[in-house]
């Protein structure tokens, strides 16, 4: 047996949800560019869960279900108030709160397709409320309930900031949600599938996925990108910063990808948005620094920016706290995790690979009293 490090190139399952073929990303056969330019995030959720775009009636029904299920059990809010929210990373809080949601769902362990679909609705609806409630509570503010007249993207920004967002903000945020919704067998989605393939419950699958997304090689990269842009501070320092990192053989977050070779097709949309939004909000220097980092890095390494690179300056220009960037990734990606969880249940087999053992050979047991 020979191990393939990081399972690179290993095809671990079949799936009808999303595909990456020749550097083109599609959701159920729809090119990501088309969806990013035209679709609402709610349409994309429906697409991923039902493998078809919704009719107007189906879309309204899903939107209503999401709005009706957005409220959290009061115990989750109380729990946020119990610990020092200033010290806790919002991804850790999200992971814990999603696990808690399982405690308050009396159908959590019922393995029935309709019940599991409703758990998907509840999770998709409640995760934005968790992220925004946590963000407000740590600032000494009360959580805000979603409004029925706002769409998913607008509601998130409204629940976070307490004011109705501008159309340009809603458009940008919706696009970011669409772009992050699913991505074939990425690390967190694979984690979710491994978890539920034991026939564990939906809440366990999503909790496990949040844990995987949190790491800086995956979803956590967007927060690290913003940390880097802030550290650089001005465009004239960008080149030296990148060259110094490369010299020290350190990674620059937001570049490279396991699957894409020519570049991540999502990055160009975020780059465009970053340019527009940073200019509009007087944060233009972050776009300029980003561009300089991009030009310097890619002139040295053939590793184009990925989805996380320009999303950092987009979220920053929307006035979002930097440690909320990865939770926002989760707000979107949970739609994909849930689609994959439902697909896994529909044709399940335990996921249990092998390891190439490289430890010591045969050893004789020596009682503890006789060991030197
Ligand atoms: N900066 C500098 N060097 C890099 C980078 C980078 N961002 N990415 C890869 N490399 C180099 C790496 O050092 C290695 O060089 P060498 O062969 O000389 O040792 C080579 O490229 C291969 O890298 P790897 O880490 O073995 O590649 P991988 O396929 O295992 O990892 C990756 C893919 C995305 C984890 C990696 O490119 C990386 O760490 N990027 C930075 C973190 C990041 O932006 N993550 C977000 C990924 S996209 C969104 C998501 O899925 O969450």
From TrEMBL:
GO terms for cellular component: cytosol. One of its GO terms (biological process) is carbohydrate metabolic process. Keywords: Acyltransferase, Transferase, Tricarboxylic acid cycle. It catalyses: oxaloacetate + acetyl-CoA + H2O = citrate + CoA + H(+). Pathway: Carbohydrate metabolism; tricarboxylic acid cycle; isocitrate from oxaloacetate: step 1/2. It comes from Rossellomorea marisflavi. The active site is at 257, 308. NCBIfam families: cit_synth_II, PRK14034.1, PRK14035.1. It comes from the Bacteria. This is Citrate synthase. GO terms for molecular function: citrate synthase activity. Belongs to the citrate synthase family.
């Amino acid at each position: 047996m020979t191990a393939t490090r990081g399972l690179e190139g290993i095809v671990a399952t079949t799936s009808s949800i999303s595909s990456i073929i020749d550097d083109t990303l599609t959701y159920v056969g729809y090119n990501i560019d088309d969806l990013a330019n035209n679709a609402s995030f709610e349409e994309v959720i429906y697409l991923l869960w039902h493998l078809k775009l919704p009719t107007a009636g189906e879309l309204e029904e899903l939107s209503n279900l999401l709005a009706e299920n957005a409220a959290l059990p009061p115990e989750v809010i109380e729990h946020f108030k119990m610990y020092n929210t200033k010290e806790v990373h919002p991804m850790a809080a999200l992971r814990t709160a999603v696990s808690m949601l399982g405690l308050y769902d009396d159908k959590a362990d019922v393995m029935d397709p309709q019940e599991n679909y409703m758990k998907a609705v509840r999770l998709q609806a409640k995760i934005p409320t968790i992220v925004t409630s946590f963000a407000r509570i740590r600032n000494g503010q009360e959580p805000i309930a979603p409004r029925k007249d706002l769409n998913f993207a607008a509601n998130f920004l409204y629940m976070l900031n307490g004011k109705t967002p501008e159309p340009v903000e809603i458009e940008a945020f919706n696009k970011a949600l669409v772009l992050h919704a699913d991505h074939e067998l990425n690390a967190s989605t694979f984690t979710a599938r491994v978890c539920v393939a034991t026939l564990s419950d939906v809440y366990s699958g999503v909790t496990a996925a949040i844990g995987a997304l949190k790491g800086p090689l995956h979803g956590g990269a967007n927060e690290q990108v913003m940390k880097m842009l802030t550290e650089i501070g001005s465009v004239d320092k960008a080149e030296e910063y990148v060259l110094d990192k490369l010299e020290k053989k350190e990674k620059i977050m937001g570049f490279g990808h396991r699957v894409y070779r020519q570049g991540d097709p999502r990055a160009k949309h975020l780059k465009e948005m970053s340019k527009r939004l940073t200019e509009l909000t007087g944060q233009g220097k972050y776009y300029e620094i980003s561009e300089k980092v991009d030009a310097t890095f890619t002139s040295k390494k053939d590793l184009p920016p990925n989805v996380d690179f320009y999303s950092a300056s987009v979220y920053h220009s929307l006035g979002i706290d930097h440690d909320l960037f990865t939770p926002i990734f989760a707000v979107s990606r949970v739609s994909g995790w849930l689609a994959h969880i439902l697909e896994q249940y529909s044709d399940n087999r335990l996921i249990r690979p092998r390891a190439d053992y490289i430890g010591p050979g045969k050893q004789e047991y020596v009682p503890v009293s006789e060991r030197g």
